Amino acid sequence: MSVLDNWKQWEDFLADRLHHAQNEGMSEGAISGLATQIGDYLSKNVDPKNEQQRVLSDLWSVADPGEQQAIANIMVKLIQNNGNR
Predict the structure, then answer these.
(1) In 38-62, which positions are buried (b, 16+ CB within 10 angstroms) versus exposed (e)?
(2) CB neighbours of 30 closer than 8 A, spacing ≥ 6?
(3) This protein's superkingdom (predicted)?
(4) 15-33 burial string, b = 16+ CB within 10 Å, else e?
(5) pTM beyond cutoff 0.70
(6) Could you give the residue ranges of the DSSP H alpha helices within 1-85?
(7) Which residues contact 36 (CB under 8 A, 6 or more apart)?
(8) How far is CA 29 from the centre of its chain?
(9) Domain 7-82 fold
(10) Which of 29, 48, 51, 74 has a CA positioned 20 to 30 A from the CA of residue 59?
(11) Rounded to whole angstroms, what are the CA distances from 50 to 6, 19, 34?
């Protein structure tokens, strides 16, 4: 099973990577930019595997670049609050 198949596993996977990036001294701006790049990559190359990912994909597809950055920032905040480290 891929981490993309289960939303909670995806959150935990991202939280682990976020924690590692923060421990290595990556700035919030760099994390935000990387989150936007990941969101763009996923929207173009990965088929959503669950309802949550489908909603994010649909939102991303209609958002302008500023709104996509906001979605990425909100995902980072969600992961900081909900993911296991």
Answers:
(1) ebeebbeeeeebeeebeebeeebee
(2) 21
(3) Bacteria
(4) beebeeeeeeeeeeeebbe
(5) yes
(6) 7-23, 28-45, 51-62, 65-82
(7) 68, 69, 72
(8) 14
(9) Cytochrome Bc1 Complex; Chain D, domain 2 (1.10.760)
(10) 29
(11) 7, 24, 23
Residue with tokens 């936007």: 36
Instruction: Pick the closest to residue 83 from 29, 32, 7, 22 (CA basis).
Output: 7
pLDDT in tens, 44-74: 998 998 899 999 999 999 999 999 999 999 9
pLDDT, position 31: 93
Rounded distance, CA 85 to CA 33, Å? 21
